[in-house]
Model the fold of this input.
Amino acid sequence: MSELKKKTAHEPLFHLSKRAAIHPAKALAIRLAAIVLGLVVCGLVAFVLIDKLNQNPGKIDDFYYCFIKGSFTSKRKIWKFLKNLAILQCISLAVTPAFRMRFWNIGAEGQTLMGVLGAIAVAFYLGGQIPEWLLLVLMLFAALVCSAIWAVIPALFKAKWNTNETLFTLMMNYVASFVVSYFLIIWVPSGSSSLGKLKFGKLPSFGHDYLVIILIVLALTIFLYVYLKYSKQGYEISVVGESVRTAQYSGINVKKVIIRTMIVSGLLCGLTGYLIGAGLDQSVTTGSVGGQGFTAIMVSWLANFNPLVMLVSSGLIALLNQGASQISQDFNVSGAMPDVIVGIILFFIIGCEFFINYQIIFRKKSHGAKEGVK
Done:
């Protein structure tokens, strides 16, 4: 009896235990609660900061209204929201096949940037010299090839020498920026590093400039969902992601799957680069992707690598970004405020995944038993 008491006395008050499973409705409720709590904390923190920086800060309800105002109070803002959602969704789709395979591709930023560069290079050298339809086709081909090459390089090193794909793909982002800077120096002898908007190589618009982009990304989302869930290649990706040894035992050529999957990711990044270059900017800079290659990692992860659910997570990020920008504009505060606001909210969203995957087990004082807090 004394030994049992001594063991109980030294037992921790609580410990963490990984959940075997959680009901989807409960997981959704936890995520929604995290979003609400994040908005509350973000509103209080931001309002205090705004109150100190602004003589006429307004009311706290104005702060929350800005999130809606930034995206849905005019047709122009709605189209902008859908455009931002589509571009972020497309990059998120690009990283998803690799992530499902547990190949941590952090290089979507550079791969997409190389796609933009490939498309704009064709427009720069051939624009006005060949028919517009042929120019657009060649731009697409160049974008796909450039991004696929940029993606397959770390895949080859991983398959051949088992290099660390996280560091490799991350460093490739910086190399891509330097490559773009090099071409800008060649194309812009004045040294301004600003190419300007090209006259040729613009995607046609049907009703609205963004409509084609939105429809392409929507079709791509459905295609990738079917590809990952129902195709043989999608099954092989999942098996390799679960266990490399199991995949090898099943007769799956793991090296081939790694290279093929990264080619798919590269092609999707290339398509995104084409949409940015030919559909939006008609130019290229080192900031053409705008950091969305890194944001896409979080979008894909929050959706548990499900392309359809990514529409929701992409929309949430787009809504937060536009709402935060509207707050910065309406309250006349620093341009860094949107990053602070979005960062606080995303902290809660990411943190809630802990409570979805783990539970806290408390010790019962009476009998030394353990009780799960779920």
About this structure: The longest helix spans residues 24-53. The chain has a mean pLDDT of 87.
